[in-house]
Design a protein that fits this description.
single chain; alpha/beta; Rossmann fold; three-stranded antiparallel β-sheet; uracil phosphoribosyltransferase activity; PRTase-like; glycosyltransferase; EC 2.4.2.9; Bifunctional pyr operon transcriptional regulator/uracil phosphoribosyltransferase PyrR
Length: about 180
C-alpha cells in the first residue's frame, strides 16, 4: 500500500500551536466561546488544543464532545447500524460562539449533522469550523473550514489516515493512502 506523509509529529504540533494563536486572536478572552470536538476523532484534536491553549493563554476554555450519529443523513441506510459515541457537553451554547473541531473535512456530511445535533444545547451566536486536514475538492455540502492545518487534493480512491501516538502509533502523523480494493 502506497502512503504519502502529509504532516509529521513536529508539523502537527506547529499546526496545533497556530490554531491556538488564531483562537486567541479571534476570541479575545473566551468569555463567550466554546469548543466542541466531533466524535470520535475530533475529540483527540480538541484535547490537544484545549491543553495547549491553557499553556499559552492560561484560559480554561469550555469544551465538550459532540456525537452526531443520529443526525447523519445515512444513519438508517446502512446494513449494520452505526454505534453512537458519548456526547459530553455540560453547558448551554445559547448565544455562544461555537468552534467545531474535527480531524479531516471530507464530504461535509459530519459537519452538517453536527450542526443539527448541537441545536439540542441552544442556538449559537456563530459557528466556526477547525480541521487538521481539508480535502478541498470532495464536498457534497457547501462547508468551508475557518481554520485548517493543510489543504490536500485527493481522489475518491484515497483515504486520509490520522495516527496518534496516544492510540498506539509510533508518533503522531497524517498520511494519504490508497483505499483497499475489495475483491
Amino acid at each position: 500500500m502506497q502512503k504519502r506523509l502529509v504532516l509529521d509529529q513536529k508539523q502537527i504540533a506547529i499546526t496545533i500551536d497556530r490554531f491556538c494563536h488564531q483562537l486567541i486572536e479571534n476570541h479575545d478572552d473566551f468569555d463567550n466561546t466554546v469548543l466542541l470536538g466531533l466524535q470520535p476523532r475530533g475529540t483527540l484534536v480538541l484535547d490537544k488544543i484545549v491543553k495547549r491553549l491553557k499553556e499559552i493563554s492560561g484560559h480554561d476554555v469550555p469544551s465538550g464532545y459532540l456525537d452526531a450519529t443520529f443526525h447523519r443523513d445515512d444513519f438508517r441506510r446502512r446494513d449494520i447500524p452505526l454505534k453512537a459515541n458519548e456526547t459530553k457537553i455540560n453547558f448551554l451554547i445559547e448565544n455562544k460562539k461555537v468552534v467545531l473541531v474535527d480531524d479531516v473535512l471530507f464530504k461535509g456530511r459530519s459537519v452538517r449533522a453536527a450542526m443539527d445535533a448541537m441545536i439540542a444545547f441552544g442556538r449559537p451566536k456563530k459557528v466556526e469550523l477547525m480541521v487538521l486536514i481539508d480535502r478541498k475538492y470532495t464536498r457534497d455540502y457547501p462547508v468551508i473550514p475557518n481554520y485548517f492545518g493543510r489543504q490536500v487534493n485527493t481522489l475518491e480512491s484515497q483515504y486520509v489516515s490520522v495516527e496518534w501516538a496516544s492510540q498506539g502509533f509510533s508518533e503522531d502523523a497524517i498520511w494519504i493512502t490508497e483505499k483497499e480494493v475489495k475483491s
